[in-house]
Amino acid sequence: MARRPLPRILSSGTASLARGRDFARTAADSATDVLHPLLVIGRGLRILAAAGRRRWSETPKDKRGPALFLGAACVLVVALVPYGPLLALMTIMAAAAWHGRDRTPVKTGPSEAEAERLGSLYEALVPYFSIPEDPSPLFAHGGEWDKAFSGYEFDEAGRLTRLHIRYPAYFTDGEAASRARIEALLHAKSGRGREYLFDWDEEGNQLDLSVLAALPTGIAAQPFVTSPGESVLGFTDSVSVQRTLPVLEGEQPRDVPPVVWRTGPRSTEPHLLAVGQPGSGTSTLLRSLALQALRHGGDVLIVDGGGSGEYACLSGRAGVLAVECGPVGAVATLEWAAQETERRLIATHRAREAGRPAPEDTRRPLWILLDQPSVLAHLAVAEGGPDPMTHLQVPLRHGRPAHVTVVVAEQFDHLEVLHDAVWQHTRARIVLGPASIQQISDVLGLPPHTTPTTLVPPGRGYARLGTGPVHRLQVPATPDPYDEATHPAHRQAVLELLPERQQGPGPAMAKAVGAAALDAPERP
């Protein structure tokens, strides 16, 4: 199937449209500021005219004649008085400005229900932010909450959406356990089911709490505007990264902040580990990475340990060397990958010794994607064969200079089966699906700055690249196109990204698979 070219609106028009919208918005704001006095006077004149018409309609008919005579006499007197018309015009304009002013009531403080909620939250924090030795405690039972809370905001349902807290300097905010207790309490008292961001200012003894908006789930797989060596893991909050990508969400173009993973010889996080529960979206992540790697001209090896057939759409495609589901094929595939890594290293070393650039075939990216390898390891041991994961150590340890990238997706229940080499060399980590803070910390090395929720859409989780911060993540929707239970538009988007089919696997892979099949022990 032919590849769909990148829409023109994504490649060149988005920036112009954004600049045009900003210019129009700035011009409208400036015009509103300049014309604001005229708008106020016009509104006041309409109010005065409406009041005059109402007063005239309420006047009895027998009194309208004397009223007209009195009005005409007043106009004549004003016309004869020096500067009378000018003073009358100024009086009318002043009255119009007074009646046309903005009379929207300004909210000066919280409502009774909001004040009660803030007081309850203040009382709940007293045991954590006070000690008996403090002569003038900021937090005390029956104290004034407005001295500790500021900058609060509530939604239409009366739930807290933002809060600025001052706390005493003796609070141990440098300890993760102390911060975790405060965050858990604020999460429970402010309303569960939402994701909160906690920004601790340890130097100023201040804490900012804010409710985060849900990440977009309608962005499907598409040709992202990235350079070779860059892969879009998903999308995050605008405050987390300083880059945006033009994408299509349905039919609407928009700019969203991505989490970009860089691979290759200069990458500090050359391999990735994704962990989640069943149905959390790890297979979706692997399909998304495979399609991006194929688009940039890479070779892909897929080992489906679960045997669910979710990668059948990639089988036989150009650039896909193999899609293996059994232990024999997995052993052969990973053994070939280890030998290919060694071959690339030797060829690159010899070329550099001779003063020549590395051969072209050694610079072609090779992606090894493993989904639930623990299942294959268990089957291989049960059948008396070798563990396929033993052949993965060479690509993990030496894959970076050989342009070899390894991505492992595993479930929480089988993490103890993973080899030490996987934990040591997968410096890019992702956790998808519902997980506790402890589980996220065990995988990523740091707890998230937000409160995880129990109900999340597929592909929703957290990502951390190396020693960087923890980002919220929403993987682009990349379902199995052969699964009719998924969204039709998302399935069609994946089909349009698939490369054309080829006649069979490459000669190197066919030879490796055939040799492994001959050496495999016979099954009873």
From TrEMBL:
Q: Does the keyword Phosphoprotein apply?
A: no
- Which keywords, in A-to-Z order, does the entry hold? Membrane, Transmembrane, Transmembrane helix
Q: Cross-referenced SUPFAM superfamilies, in alphabetical order?
A: P-loop containing nucleoside triphosphate hydrolases
What stretches pass through the bilayer? 67-98
UniProt lists compositionally biased (Low complexity) regions at 504-524
Q: Where is this region: Disordered?
A: 503-524
State what protein this is by name. Answer: FtsK domain-containing protein
The organism named in the record is Streptomyces erythrochromogenes
